[in-house]
Design brief:
alpha+beta, three-stranded antiparallel sheet, 8 strands, 47% helix, 17% strand
Length: 266
């Protein structure tokens, strides 16, 4: 093709471009972006949906401690009401059993048999020589303890369990935590810096009372690795540990005796 002048040649080029006759410039493909953009958009949508579902109409950064405290208080009241109801029912069962025992010899025999096992089972209050151990949180963090964390300054579940296990190993005949009778099947749990025992919540200091030979109990405490570690933390972070020998008293066990599982000993 020949162009007689610059103006004429440009006019022809423009006309051919308008008519769609000029070859198009090949587009550069960007396979990474073509795949990545939809994936990023889908991920963003999923995050937005998850946040909206989790928030459930509330702010995610909202401080929900007041609601949690209220929930704990409501559950505590429910547990107290259930305990009162259970005590009433136990009284009714005992009253009717005593009435039937007056005229039914087999029931009377079983009642006498059960009475002989109450003390061994922990259903009677006991008193005698023993040891009292008190565990307490440390004071507030100060400038001289800048390397300590909040976990270093509170009594943990393992600390209470170490003391309880040592006292059982030392031959404790009966034990109470926070004036609540505990058995070998009782579970000790901590929620934050509070103790959860038989559905009730207790705040430190945690007092553990055991009846038994004071010398044997103290020797078991001294030989416990868990108790030793807690005493080390007492020296490092001013946690509270107090061990006293005296005549102590533990109440009767008053919680449910239902077993969820059991095995026959060989």
């Amino acid at each position: 093709m020949e162009y007689t002048s610059g103006a004429t040649s440009w006019q022809k080029v423009l006309r051919r471009a308008a008519a769609g006759l000029l070859p198009r410039r090949p587009r550069q493909r960007r396979p990474g972006w073509s795949i990545g953009v939809p994936l990023i958009a889908a991920a963003a949508g999923l995050l937005f949906t998850t946040s909206a579902t989790t928030a459930d109409g509330t702010a995610l950064r909202e401080d929900r401690r007041p609601q949690l405290n209220q929930l704990i208080e409501e559950r505590r009241e429910q547990v107290a009401a259930s305990e009162r109801r259970a005590a009433t029912l136990r009284g009714e069962v005992e009253q009717r059993t005593n009435t039937l025992a007056g005229s039914d010899a087999p029931i009377k025999n079983q009642q006498n048999r059960a009475q002989g096992s109450l003390q061994a089972a922990g259903f009677t209050a006991l008193g005698g020589p023993g040891v009292t151990v008190e565990l307490n949180d440390a004071p507030q963090l100060d400038q001289t303890q800048s390397d300590a964390s909040n976990d270093d300054l509170v009594v943990h579940q393992g600390d209470v369990q170490a003391v309880v296990n040592a006292l059982w190993a030392g031959g404790a005949e009966a034990m109470a935590i926070m004036n609540v009778r505990v058995l070998s099947t009782s579970a000790v749990r901590c929620v934050g810096n509070t103790l959860l025992l038989h559905g009730r919540v207790y705040s430190p200091p945690f007092k553990i009372v055991a009846i038994g030979d004071p010398a044997a109990l103290q020797q078991a405490l001294a030989g416990s690795e868990g108790v030793r570690l807690f005493k080390d933390a007492v020296d490092d972070y001013q946690l509270g540990y107090k061990e006293t020998v005296s005549t102590v008293r533990v109440p009767a066990f008053e919680d449910s005796t239902s077993l969820r599982s059991a095995t026959v000993p060989k």
